[in-house]
Amino acid sequence: MASRAGPRAAGTDGSDFEHRERVAKHYQMSVALKSEVRKLNIVHVLIWVLMAAQVTVSQLGLVSYKVVATPYQWEYPYLLSIIPTVFSFLALPRNNISYLVISMISGGLFCVAPLLYGSMEMFPVAQQLYRHGKAYRFIFGFSAVSVMYLVIVIAVQVHGWQIYYSKKLLDQWFASTTTPDKKKK
Hints:
mainly alpha
């Protein structure tokens, strides 16, 4: 074997690396996709914590309603969106297909559906803000509808990418479980 300080091994010119084993492509993709799903899960947890803090502070009356607005109706069911993320975190370490499927299905139900409802619920208020420049709810001095629409835009992207990468990851896991065995002699 060659060392950094010593000469190269006799009989080799360094081009004998072709025969070495490599990690299969679907395993490499699985690792990369797991990393992406984890990052998106962490971003979702951050959004969820901010939403839960806003709902909790408002409901407990810890600050004036002039500082933190009362929550819109869609924010309460959105708090259930932590469930798909928990299933996703549980699915990743052991490539648990069932948990990942549950995460994807419940992601549409608990994450995307409340966001769509929220965008429709807040539309008249946003329209009034745009037309007349009047806002009645505020979050730290900013129009609550503007802040919540910003949250919705970010959250829809995060959940869309979560579902997309989870589907790609699921395809990779199926590819690794359905590969044909070595040819029988």
